[in-house]
């Protein structure tokens, strides 16, 4: 019998239903604390469906806040710089992690990451009228990225085959639930709250323009020199080589970058390398139905 390596012995998490949204079992344990979380008026939230470009946006926001100082941005890994509010891990093999505890202990001004669908956002965040940056990515690329992330990250549920994963994604039976409800819910919420709604595809098309939008939203004036520095340092190529942003320092033994690196491709339309023609037709038809009640439009290619 072959020796079992750490990654073979890890049991992947099961999902539990939390108000209609599948979350991990440990997250269910601390759900009350998440809902009672006390926001502060000067908090900034980065909200996304998983794999929509969270880490990229976190780096952009941090670089803006640090006025382009790369040394300051390298003070810690992305995972440790910004608490991941609803994330909770109680037991090994992952390190213990409580997003709520980390956020509570953090001095203001805080920048906090969430993947929650809009209806599950802790009420205090709305009450304090906090700034929220939401990033959305087209469904097909988002799903491809999520599939590879499940393969490489043993903290995620078993993805099954690509065909099986497509079915799960379309029916919303994945961690953080339905992509369709997520992007539509936040799209609606932006008319009532302080939400900057961005698209991954726009960020790829013209990062400078989108970084400027974020800076304006955060009420930060950036010189051209600093802006250019941020564009460069938040490019896929630079972030892939940066140990503070590429997730090689966190989740060691949990994330296996040899299966699929966290910084995988970072492009628009990689879905074309994954979907069969039949799959694409089925997906499009279902997509049309699910997205018929929104004005939200995505670009599937540039
Ligand atoms: P791919 O798997 O398609 O490559 P998140 O941070 O929300 O988990 O999203 C991860 C996705 O964003 C991955 O997509 C990753 O490669 C991509 N990404 C990370 N940094 C990026 C950057 N600077 N530019 C473009 N894409 C980036």
From TrEMBL:
Keyword Signal on entry: no
InterPro entries in UniProt: P-loop_NTPase, Sulfotransferase_dom
Top-rank lineage group of the source organism: Eukaryota
Sulfotransferase domain residues: 41-294
Record EC number: 2.8.2.-
GO cellular component, one term: cytoplasm
GO molecular function, one term: sulfotransferase activity
Keywords: Cytoplasm, Transferase
Coiled coil location: none
Class in the EC hierarchy, top level: transferase
Signal peptide (residue range): none
Localisation per UniProt entry: Cytoplasm
Gene3D superfamilies to which the protein is assigned, alphabetical: P-loop containing nucleotide triphosphate hydrolases
Family membership noted in the UniProt record: Belongs to the sulfotransferase 1 family.
Name of the protein in its database record: Sulfotransferase
Provenance organism: Pipra filicauda (Wire-tailed manakin)
């Amino acid at each position: 019998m072959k020796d079992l390596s750490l990654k073979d012995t890890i049991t992947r998490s099961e999902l539990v239903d939390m108000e209609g949204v599948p979350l991990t079992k440990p997250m269910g344990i601390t759900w009350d604390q998440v809902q009672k979380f006390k926001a502060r008026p000067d908090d900034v939230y980065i909200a996304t469906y998983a794999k929509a470009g969270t880490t990229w946006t976190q780096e952009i926001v941090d670089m803006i806040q640090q006025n382009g100082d790369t040394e300051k941005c390298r003070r810690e890994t992305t995972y440790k710089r910004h608490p991941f509010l609803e994330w909770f891990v109680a037991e090994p093999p992952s390190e213990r992690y409580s997003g709520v505890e980390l956020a509570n202990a953090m001095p203001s001004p805080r920048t906090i990451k969430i993947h929650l669908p809009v209806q599950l956002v802790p009420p205090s965040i709305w009450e304090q009228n906090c700034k929220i940056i939401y990033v959305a990515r087209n469904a097909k690329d988002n799903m491809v990225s999520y599939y590879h992330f499940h393969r490489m990250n043993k903290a995620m549920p078993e993805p099954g085959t690509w065909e099986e994963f497509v079915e799960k994604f379309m029916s919303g039976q994945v961690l953080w639930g339905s992509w369709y409800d997520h992007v539509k819910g936040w799209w609606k919420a932006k008319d009532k709250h302080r939400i900057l709604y961005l698209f991954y595809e726009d960020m790829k098309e013209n990062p400078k323009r989108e970084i400027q939008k974020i800076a304006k939203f955060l009420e930060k004036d950036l010189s051209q020199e600093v802006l250019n520095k941020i564009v460069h340092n938040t490019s896929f190529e630079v972030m892939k080589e940066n140990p503070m942003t590429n997730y090689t320092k966190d989740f060691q033994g949990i994330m296996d970058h040899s299966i699929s690196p966290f910084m995988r491709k970072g492009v628009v339309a990689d879905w074309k390398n994954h979907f069969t023609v039949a799959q694409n037709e089925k997906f499009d038809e279902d997509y049309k139905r699910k997205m018929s009640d929104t004005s939200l439009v995505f670009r599937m290619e540039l």
